[in-house]
Write a structure and sequence with these properties.
Length: about 300
């Protein structure tokens, strides 16, 4: 059987790589696997750490801060050159720590109709799993999140993207998309969907890929027996990154819907960010201001 390609994209990741690499043998137990890392021109010791702790890994240096999707594509290209190909691909953040047997459970979940499998994610130091499953964006869902908050609205499928029902995380559950800290993708799904969309420098690239896979008949499914810890978890990001996340969310919606619906969606997202800005959240203040700028949704380079 062909090996599983473990793909990670790094950028100044020297501090989190040792833990990621140390957890790989247990996380990948039961599989033949190879590691491919695409480094986006790190300014720290990321590449040196890789060569020291994972000398058998394939390291692809992109030569620039190319973005997450571009890093995934560079690593996929390198894995595609293996003589025996690959059976499946695991796309990982370097701040993921897989628990025993996580990868095999994910790979075993893949099949004719499941093209993407995701684990139960935990944030370091917390007992409850993260709400990692999502519904596709819609105007009513954006309004629900703006008016009553995404966690309360998450109880109602029509009012939030966030899936908060505990039962959804206790059984294999299909979703429109899932957070992309750790994803297993079947070779068939990758062949059908092609490269990741590099116009999303950071954020929404996994959303776009899951929705594209769904459009081609490949579902995204949670496998709750596969577990991993995400060091980043749900920590709040900087105003600059939150702005990028918010704009990319609206940009992706605009690609899949008409101009009128996109105007309504953008207004609903602005309402959410403006209401939180009024409560003193700096990141939301920056995002709300960006949503009002002409040309804000054009493709721009990342931070």
């Amino acid at each position: 059987m062909s090996p599983v390609a473990v793909i990670a994209v790094t950028w100044n990741s020297a501090s989190v790589l040792p833990g990621f690499l140390a957890a790989l043998p247990e996380g990948m137990a039961g599989l033949d696997w190879r590691l491919v890392v695409a480094d986006n021109d790190s300014a720290d010791d990321t590449v040196e750490v890789l060569r020291s702790l994972a000398p058998d890994a394939t390291v692809v240096q992109t030569g620039r801060n190319a973005g997450y999707a571009a890093g995934v594509n560079a690593a996929l290209k390198a894995a595609g050159e293996w003589e025996d190909g690959y059976a499946a691909v695991l796309v990982c953040n370097p701040d993921i720590r897989m628990r025993q047997g996580c990868a095999k459970r994910l790979v075993d979940t893949l099949g004719a109709h499941v093209g993407i499998a995701v684990p139960l994610l935990y944030e370091e130091g917390r007992a409850a799993p993260l709400h990692s499953l999502r519904r596709e964006s819609s105007v009513p869902r954006a309004l629900g999140e703006a008016l009553i908050g995404n966690r309360r609205a998450g109880r109602f499928p029509g009012l939030s993207e966030l899936v908060t029902d505990p039962a959804a995380y206790a059984r294999p559950t299909r979703a429109d998309w899932a957070t992309g800290a750790l994803m297993a993708l079947s070779a068939d799904c990758l062949a059908a969907c092609g490269p990741w969309d590099e116009s999303f420098f950071l954020y929404s690239e996994e959303t776009e890929y899951c929705l594209r896979a769904r459009d081609r008949g490949y579902a995204t499914q949670l496998e709750p027996t596969a577990e991993a810890v995400h060091l980043g978890g749900e920590s709040r990001v900087s105003p600059r990154l939150w702005t990028l996340l918010t704009l990319n969310r609206v940009r992706l919606y605009g690609r899949r819907h008409g101009p009128g619906a996109t105007v309504c969606f953008r207004a609903a997202v602005f309402l959410r960010e403006a209401s939180r800005a009024a409560l003193g959240r700096r990141a939301s203040r920056a995002a709300a201001a960006a949503l009002l700028r002409p040309g804000a949704l054009r493709v721009t380079p990342g931070p």
